[in-house]
Amino acid sequence: MKKISNKIKVLIIVIIILLIAGIAVVATKGFNVGLKYNETKKVEIEIGKDFENSDIKKITNEVLSNQPTIIQKSQLNQNDVTIMAKEITDEQKTNLVSKINEKYGTEINADDVQVQLVPHARLRDLVKPYILPFAIATVIIVIYAAIRFHKLGAIKTAIKTIFFLILTQGVLASIIAIIRLPIGRTTMILVIAVYMLTATGLICNWEKKLKQKKQESDIKNAWQKQ
Length: 226
Known about the structure:
Shape: elongated
Strand order of the largest sheet: 2-3-1-4
Distance between the termini: 31 Å
Strand content: 5-15%
Largest sheet: 4 strands, antiparallel
Helix content: 55-70%
Mean pLDDT: 88
Radius of gyration: 27 Å
Structural class: alpha+beta
Number of helices: 6
């Protein structure tokens, strides 16, 4: 019992350290927003021919010094390419156009291509679509836990469920901030996965405790009948 208690103490200390470190990183640096949601520069080039994103990637790696880029075919015209990067200078734009002309035998005029500024997306705009579904899911889980495990104490079970759902998300957010994991769709999938695993783990834990309580009650009743 003492060994288990010591493990719990260590776990609590680790969690507190992670939360404090996460808060400090967010306060000083903020979250690492992925390129797609950060302030970027972009150019839209009308190639007029079918192309592979991998070929354009080779060109951007050479011209843009291997900085992270997003390369997309235009939704309106699959023969047009959009290139996004943290920084694209006029000189780099000219070099991009020149190498694309060389690669595809086109005669694109660099003066017709403009470098556009794409403002960063606000983090709350990225999270906003998930707030209501998370809130509804949490209410359903808490109500279910309070009713299903009322023998363990409805209010106590509900409070613990809310606490651990929030705690695990707080720890996850701290880890994301500390390791500078870029915020994006993949991050939100990770958040949802951790939330579901936490909810499942809590339900399983309450089921186990309810079963133990029933066994103890059966043993107690058996002794009383003797």
